[in-house]
Amino acid sequence: MNTHIEKVKEEFTNYKENNEIENRKKNIEILQLINEENETLRKSMEVSLNNVNNDIKDVKEHITNFKEYVEKRIKDINNIMDMNRKEIDEKIEHICMNQKKLMGDFYPYKKN
């Protein structure tokens, strides 16, 4: 009977060891799956981040181009305003000269 108990103990020990080994194998498989999923997620995040960075670069370029366009338009508008001011000043000067002539015709200046 002692032999039988020893044999059962040995079988139980073997069963426990085998069970532990199987559990470790399963845990390793689970960890490998988790690692694979993490790697897939990391790659996906990297692609997303690269896309966002590229979009940011594009937006910055568009902003720079728009800023340059607006600055050029402002310069053009200022130049047009300057030209209009000069034209208006010339016309006002011409009108003033004509007014003086008319005033001189209606109210001649007498010299003593």
TrEMBL record:
Taxonomic placement: Eukaryota, Sar, Alveolata, Apicomplexa, Aconoidasida
Protein name, per record: Uncharacterized protein
Source organism: Plasmodium falciparum FCH/4
